[in-house]
Amino acid sequence: MQAFIGLHVLFGYHKLPETALYWSKEETLGVAYVKKVMPRDSIVNAHILETEAQNHRSRSQMQFRVELAKMLIGEFSSRLRSVSEGQITNGHWPVEASKERCKRCLKQKRNKFCQMACMACGKRICLECFPNHSENDL
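^ PiggyBac transposable element-derived protein domain-containing protein, sequence as received from the core. Prediction below:
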């Protein structure tokens, strides 16, 4: 918002823009992204259609806009998924263990100590090598 105002002042608009100017059809005033994503006419038309419908209650355009915004925010927030409480106990997962040399690094003639081991096979493997780990490699 500050950049938008700053550009207008820099390019000769010495009067701060009003909110309505976001939807202006004039090239230098309107914000293309706002006009594309949230066209003002579509919100007004939706309110008119709602007031003409018989099964909806009558409300002002401001109330309509506020409730529309709340519904849009509510749908966005509902995308969050709940985390599963269960734990996966089988498979190759890193667990803390005593300090020993990483078996994969040792095969590649690197001397690296780690405090992680594979839950399934018990081999000491550092976290850098763990994503590529399988029992056949060691």
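The helical segments are 2-10, 32-37, 40-52, 61-77, 103-107.
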